[in-house]
Structure formats: structure tokens, C-alpha cells
Amino acid sequence: MQREVMTVWNRCLNVIREIVPEQSFNTWFEPIVPLRLNGHILTIQVPSEFFYEWLEENFVHALRKALDTAIGRDGQLEYSIIVDKGNEQNRPLTVNVPTTKTPQTAKPDNVSPDILKSPFQLKDLDSLTLDSYLNPTYTFDNYVEGDCNRLARSAGYAVAERPGVTSFNPLMIYGGVGLGKTHLVQAIGNYIKNNNQNKFVLYVTSEKFTNQFLNAIRTDGIRDFTSFYMQVDVLVIDDVQFLQKKEKTQEIFFHIFNHLHQSGKQIIMTSDRAPRALDGLEDRLLSRFKWGLSADLQTPDLETRIAIIQKKLQAEGIYIDDNVIEYLAHSVNTNVRELEGVIVSLMAQASLNRRDIDLELAKQTLRNIVVDSERDVTIDSVQEAVADFFNVTVADLKAKSRKRELVYPRQVAMYLAKEKTDLSLKSIGYHFGGRDHSTVIHAIQTISDLVAKNADTRDSVEKLKTLFK
């Protein structure tokens, strides 16, 4: 029996490994212990309730696919949650795995699941309850405002309160990866949906829009496709940059855009760059993108990063010391998505190892997450390498001492931290005993001059740089 459950679970893992990233697989699936197989019911043991909830919220579709492959469509999953060391909960919790048999919404075999209740099945919206494809967890309440996103957030809220009425139509939100574009536009959609029952909101990615359009061409359903989209009250289209060089899709979107705008309907879009930088889109489409407001999202500043961490921890009901929060905020300054990923990994490590979240665990978690590459060098790895090279300690680099044998390595470490990481001068100073950014500037300038004039310094810096390649 044990061999049978292990075989089934290994089949599940083979499927899951192909779906989820390696880091997520190692963190969330390797610790799972398969307990028993009772008919079509597979019971697995997880380390904590938090672990179970995270699997349900983030990997339920991967688990469903794994069960379909390993057991069949009747396969079910149960969790056995460890609540105390050595004490297993007797009452397993059954996961809410989406069933593969949904006769109420069953579709013909030749219709893609991505276009459920789409224009290929429906000719109008009257008396129909349609899915807006909005994620209800994306709200204004859990969207942290800061200098980096204030304009976009304020404009978004104005649109949410008066869709189609403000001059922000269309509203274009643009910015780099992981800065919260999708969160913001879906928060707008959810607000409208919850406060204007008579308005139909539709969220769609440009990729899905394109696939629906291509399917409409194949099935001679262009009229239904266009009719459907022209009846939408609020259209939220994500990642419009992917419409580049798709002439026919741009043409149909142009006509839908015109109709919605002239009818007083609200259009909201996201892009990874400003409209003026969207090469490969028709000029007439780009000109319409500029009719309303384009607002950018920037990399969150330190204060916003601290607020994001606090908000995330508060939502999870977890408390950690301010010094740990400050360390995380100073250490991860790329984007919101990576910052939230670090927090989740930190909570997972604390849950798996049954320990409190302290500064040491935070450093260890960051060290495990960051890939050992030149692009991902951390402030900790720079300090450790410099301390080892000059035969001092990391504590010496952070100390207040002004002895030359410590000042010089400290300045070299600051110089390398600026060159090898994306940290701001303020954050670098924080990691060196809370020094002012002017001290960091002086250190960088000093070492730059020595590298140019002094062969010994140049040689030392070059040797240290090779450690980070």
C-alpha cells in the first residue's frame, strides 16, 4: 500500500514539476509526505495550516492536473495538517480542487476553456451572469500608495468612482515588471463591479483577446465577437504591448475602442512602456491611447517598500521586528512582486523550520533566494567577500572605527556594493552601520580615484570583482 501511494505521488510530482518554477517546487512540494491512498482519495501531510492554505490559494490548478494524470478525473485530495510536533491532526481537511466535470457550464469539445461565456457562445449580455475574469483579492484596500504610484492610484480611483465620465478615458497604466499594474487595474474593475451592479466589467489580457479573435476568424464568428465586446461597459485590457505587429487584431481593437469610447464606456489598459515607446502599433491606435491619461508606476521607494511589507504581514496576521522589516526593505528594491515573494519565502521558512522570523532567518532566506550571478549579487555577499579578502570581519565593516586598516576595506566594500547591486546610496549606508549617503559618496569617489592611480588598489578591486562573476 505504501509503495502504491508513493508511486501515485511521484506521478503527481512529475506533472507539478513541469508546471511550477523550480524554487516554488522545492519550497512547497518537496516537504509534502504522501500518507495513504484510499480508492480515488490521496491524503498528503503538510507541515502547517499556513502551508495548506498557500497550496490551496496558489497551486490548486497544478494539483488538479496532477490528480487527473495520476489517478483520473475522479481523483480527490485530502490534507493532514501537523499542528504540533509529533501530533498529527486526525481530521484531514479536503482541498477545494476544481472539478473537471462542470455540466452547468460544459462547452463543446472544440471550444477553448479560456473563452468560456465568450462571444462565441453569447450574442448579447441581457439576463446573463458573466464572469469578469477579475481576481477579487486585488482591491484598493491592499494596494499600498506611495510616491512611486500616487498619480496612477489617484487617477484609477477617480475612474473607479465615475467610469466613463472622467477625462481619464482611456486610462493607461504603464511601468516595468512587478510594479503592480495588474493589481491596480483589477482593483479599479472590482470597485466598479461591486458599486455599479448595472455595469459589466471585463478583464482580458491582450493575448487572450488575440486568441479569441483568431478563433472567431476560424469559426466565422467575427460579428458575434465584435458585438460582444461592444456591449462591455468597462473594458480592462492588460499588456497591450503584445498587440504589436498584429495588424488584423489591432484593426478589430481599433473599431471596438472607437465604439466604446464614443458610447461613454470606460477603457483601461496596461503596458510595460509609455504609449510613445510602443513601436509596432498603428499610429491611429497610438493616438487614441493618448486621448486620456497615461500614468506610470515606478520602482517603490524605501518608505513604500516598508509599507508593503507591513501590509503583507498584517494580512497574514504575522508580526516581526521593525529591524527585520527595515533590512528586507533595504535589501530588495527591484519591484513589488519580488518583495512579496521574499516575504512569502520567509514565512514558509519560518513555518517549515518552526522558528520565529528574526534578522538571521531573513538573511538566510535572502541568501537562498538570490541566484549566484553577477546580476544578483547581494550586499551581504559583497561584505563577506571584502571582509575575507582583507582579513577583517563584517562587523568591522559596519563599526564606527576610523582606523585606516578598517576604513579602506569599508570604502572598497561600499564601492563594490554600488557597482554590483541596485541598492541606493541610502540603503548602502544603512548596511554599513547606518552611515549617511554622503559618506558612501565619499567612499566611492575615494576608491574610484585610487583605482585610476594606484596599481595595488586596482588589482585588489579586480580580484574581488572576479568573485562575483
TrEMBL record:
<dbReference type="GO" id="GO:0008289">
    <property type="term" value="F:lipid binding"/>
</dbReference>
<feature type="region of interest" description="Domain I, interacts with DnaA modulators">
    <location>
        <begin position="1"/>
        <end position="100"/>
    </location>
</feature>
<dbReference type="Pfam" id="PF11638">
    <property type="entry name" value="DnaA_N"/>
</dbReference>
<dbReference type="InterPro" id="IPR013159">
    <property type="entry name" value="DnaA_C"/>
</dbReference>
<dbReference type="InterPro" id="IPR003593">
    <property type="entry name" value="AAA+_ATPase"/>
</dbReference>
<dbReference type="InterPro" id="IPR024633">
    <property type="entry name" value="DnaA_N_dom"/>
</dbReference>
<comment type="function">
    <text>Plays an essential role in the initiation and regulation of chromosomal replication. ATP-DnaA binds to the origin of replication (oriC) to initiate formation of the DNA replication initiation complex once per cell cycle. Binds the DnaA box (a 9 base pair repeat at the origin) and separates the double-stranded (ds)DNA. Forms a right-handed helical filament on oriC DNA; dsDNA binds to the exterior of the filament while single-stranded (ss)DNA is stabiized in the filament's interior.</text>
</comment>
<feature type="binding site">
    <location>
        <position position="182"/>
    </location>
    <ligand>
        <name>ATP</name>
    </ligand>
</feature>
<dbReference type="Pfam" id="PF00308">
    <property type="entry name" value="Bac_DnaA"/>
</dbReference>
<feature type="binding site">
    <location>
        <position position="181"/>
    </location>
    <ligand>
        <name>ATP</name>
    </ligand>
</feature>
<protein>
    <recommendedName>
        <fullName>Chromosomal replication initiator protein DnaA</fullName>
    </recommendedName>
</protein>
<feature type="binding site">
    <location>
        <position position="178"/>
    </location>
    <ligand>
        <name>ATP</name>
    </ligand>
</feature>
<dbReference type="GO" id="GO:0006270">
    <property type="term" value="P:DNA replication initiation"/>
</dbReference>
<keyword id="KW-0963">Cytoplasm</keyword>
<keyword id="KW-0067">ATP-binding</keyword>
<comment type="similarity">
    <text>Belongs to the DnaA family.</text>
</comment>
<keyword id="KW-0446">Lipid-binding</keyword>
<dbReference type="GO" id="GO:0005886">
    <property type="term" value="C:plasma membrane"/>
</dbReference>
<feature type="binding site">
    <location>
        <position position="180"/>
    </location>
    <ligand>
        <name>ATP</name>
    </ligand>
</feature>
<dbReference type="InterPro" id="IPR001957">
    <property type="entry name" value="Chromosome_initiator_DnaA"/>
</dbReference>
<feature type="domain" description="Chromosomal replication initiator DnaA C-terminal">
    <location>
        <begin position="378"/>
        <end position="447"/>
    </location>
</feature>
<comment type="subunit">
    <text>Oligomerizes as a right-handed, spiral filament on DNA at oriC.</text>
</comment>
<dbReference type="GO" id="GO:0006275">
    <property type="term" value="P:regulation of DNA replication"/>
</dbReference>
<dbReference type="InterPro" id="IPR038454">
    <property type="entry name" value="DnaA_N_sf"/>
</dbReference>
<dbReference type="InterPro" id="IPR018312">
    <property type="entry name" value="Chromosome_initiator_DnaA_CS"/>
</dbReference>
<dbReference type="GO" id="GO:0003688">
    <property type="term" value="F:DNA replication origin binding"/>
</dbReference>
<dbReference type="GO" id="GO:0005737">
    <property type="term" value="C:cytoplasm"/>
</dbReference>
<dbReference type="InterPro" id="IPR013317">
    <property type="entry name" value="DnaA_dom"/>
</dbReference>
<dbReference type="Pfam" id="PF08299">
    <property type="entry name" value="Bac_DnaA_C"/>
</dbReference>
<feature type="domain" description="AAA+ ATPase">
    <location>
        <begin position="167"/>
        <end position="297"/>
    </location>
</feature>
<keyword id="KW-0547">Nucleotide-binding</keyword>
<keyword id="KW-0238">DNA-binding</keyword>
<dbReference type="InterPro" id="IPR027417">
    <property type="entry name" value="P-loop_NTPase"/>
</dbReference>
<dbReference type="InterPro" id="IPR020591">
    <property type="entry name" value="Chromosome_initiator_DnaA-like"/>
</dbReference>
<dbReference type="GO" id="GO:0005524">
    <property type="term" value="F:ATP binding"/>
</dbReference>
<dbReference type="InterPro" id="IPR010921">
    <property type="entry name" value="Trp_repressor/repl_initiator"/>
</dbReference>
<feature type="region of interest" description="Domain IV, binds dsDNA">
    <location>
        <begin position="351"/>
        <end position="469"/>
    </location>
</feature>
<keyword id="KW-0235">DNA replication</keyword>
